[in-house]
Specification:
heterodimer, A: about 180 residues, Alpha-D-Glucose-1,6-Bisphosphate, Chain A, domain 4, globular, B: about 400 residues, alpha/beta, Quinone Oxidoreductase, Chain A, domain 1, Rossmann fold, 2 domains, seven-stranded mixed sheet, START-like_dom_sf (chain A)
Chain lengths: ~180, ~400
Amino acid sequence: MTDDAPSATAKHTSPDQDLTMQSVTIGRPADELFAYFRDFSNLSSFMDNVERIDVIDEHRSHWVVKAPAGKTVEWDATVTAEEPGRSISWQSEDGADVPNSGRVTFTDAGARGTVVSATIAYDPPAGIVGKVIAKLFQREPAIQARRDLRRFKQLMETGEIATSSRTQTQLQEERA
Amino acid sequence: MRALAWHGKHDVRVDTVDDPEILNPRDCIIKVTSTAICGSDLHLYDDYIPTMKAGDILGHEFMGEVVEVGAGSTLKKGQRVVVPFTISCGSCYHCGKHQYSACDNGNPADNQDIGQELYGQPMSGLFGYSHLTGGYAGGQAEYVRVPFSDVGPIVIPDGIEDEKVLFLSDILPTGWQAAENADIEPGDTVAVWGCGPVGLFAIQSAFLMGAERVIAIDHFPRRLELAKTFGAETINFEETKTYEALMQMTGGIGPDAVIDAVGLEAHGFFVDNVIDQIKASTFLGTDRIHSIRQAIVACRKGGRVSMPAVYGGIVDKFPLGAFMEKGLTLKTGQTHVQHYLPGLLAAIIEGKIDTTFLISHRLDLEEAPQGYKMFHDDQNEVTKVVLKPGFGARSGDVV
């Protein structure tokens, strides 16, 4: 690279791995955002395709992620690096249906709050077995990450996640 | 409840749908007492705005009584409120700068994709105005769910009737912001294209801000008459060559500031406009922009261009050369309604601004489809349609 732009914005990326990076600025202190994110059981509140995450211990968690046709895929993930208030990285453990890893950084942005950047790398499964699952994850992971970060911002800045639903029934359908 | 829903081009119907419910802590539910059809609703009616879905409830100018509040709302049941058409959180960076229509959080996360792709960054949510702006149900209904009700709605003191304050929801602050964006200096001559509600309020506002002369341009005699009552000089572009007239009326200088209050459905059979119409009808472009083009060419050197008019897409044949060579300044944008509400409500109460002259027709909500058709077909006589749920029953006028 000959410029200062993040590598995830390069025009040509490595063909064997899909990498997506999204950033959002949130008008809250980095410590507060980190603390909320670090408790992985909170992530399903704004990550649309995560049904739930069970915290196993300080470093390990069990992810239950929505798949097409009402099914779910599950895996265990391990925190591989952590700098309190600054960054956290995790990786799926061996045997995951969709091997993946993520890193989220929290950078102080002064009066504007905190820049939260998420880099998600995933390795879609090959062959027929993983086809359905792959479809889910190939459904524009960048868009999914971007939407999730917007919801995180809404929740942290306003205390709620914006919806244009009119009724509870519509809201349940929207979040299903 | 009953609500006016969009079903396609020139097809709006009053449907029975589920009542809205409190979904988030900061929500409230309003029982609508008055709601208006906006000129920009005609853009939806004419199917010029993408991302509409059959069944979408229209309406972004409304007021009513608070009937239900969430735990985070600061409103109380029974209060009368006017609701801004922009849905803004009050907590983000842009709301902090009073750029409410640029709110980061008012538009649901998934809907923000469209704005991000079209415009680079998504804008705030709006009531009843396509899924581009959130897909929120609008106010031409008996009840409306109002998000962020601790930030948007303004409480109206008792004793002030609906019609005096209804237009705080959109067109009055939009006209005011249009004049503010023209950076008017005492002694200025300001030209306003379009004497619809926004143009007329911009004329009133321009005089209040110190303009010496306002020249109003339209082709509907009734609207030009209204402009005249506020002290504007008029140009009927069907009878008069607008640019030539403006140059003569300003001693060869051109207006110091120009305001385009027409927007994407600009009338006028000029060659460039006809090309725009052909393109629009063949989906090659959605914006017909004769008025802004003419405003830029007429504006004096170093002058200011204010564009409250709604544009949605990409245009060509924009006079970029005239804009650059003459060193013009352009200010535009959806209205930051919440920013203007306290000042404008005070001006109404003090009698400095009256907006009730605009209302030409009052209908029951059930008659909303006729209201759309009338407004669409006769913009000379129909200057503003106000809809009132239950109006027919109350007035004994059987619908």
